[in-house]
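Quick one: sequence plus zinc ion SMILES, need structure tokens.
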Amino acid sequence: MSLYRDEGIVLRTHKLGEADRIVTVLTRRTGKVRGVAKGVRRTMSRFGARLEPFTHVDLQLHNGRTLDVITQAETIHPYGEALVHDYPRYTAGSAMLETADRLIMGEKEPALRQFLLLVGGLRTLGSGGHEPRLVLDAYFLRSLAVAGYAPALEACARCKAPAVRAFAIVAGGVVCGACRPAGSAVPAGETIALMSALLKGDWATADASEGRHRAECSGLVAAYLQWHLEHGIRSLRHVEREPASSTTLD
Ligand SMILES: [Zn+2]
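Reply:
Sure thing.
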């Protein structure tokens, strides 16, 4: 039996048998880990309380035959506390956890940049300094970029021409008039500029954006993310979004 320590963000938990729980954690060094927390549902255990989604925990585990067993958990930061009484922030945070879980498919494959992005995203969300939808879209764009799916935003995704006029999910971002596939969206230039600002972390530009461009940006980012994940993300349905009425399809 070999022990190891790591820290991570609890992504989700589910019941195992009468008293145990399986806890999925995105850790700093080990990547995504699923561990069994024994006996946490039998009592009102503080151990179990530390293993709730959103919590940044320091863990001790031992390698099991199928699942590792969590033997100790200490709270580093309970990110959920800042989110739980604020519905838009809570749903945005839930969508982040679910996206991290689905984008990082392999277990025990180190994913340090994804871990740091998630910690940064939860911290920014909890601090309340930016609109939750902007924080979520920035997280989506950057986690997609880390996973190798950054959308092209500066030049045509297909031919690299600098003059672009549409956004095509199947092409991987903005496209020129010649490369534009049927059914691509024609967003406002400000919407593409907002996506670019969120991807780069340019909060001054993002915070100054108008609501209609934020709505259009959210719609495009959500569609782009879902296309890459192949299946819809359940939490996304609960994130409050204004209709992206300015988006025209042709
Ligand atoms: Zn082109």
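DSSP finds seven helices and nine strands in the chain. The pocket of zinc ion is lined by residues 156, 158-159, 161, 175-176, 178-179 (CB under 6 Å).
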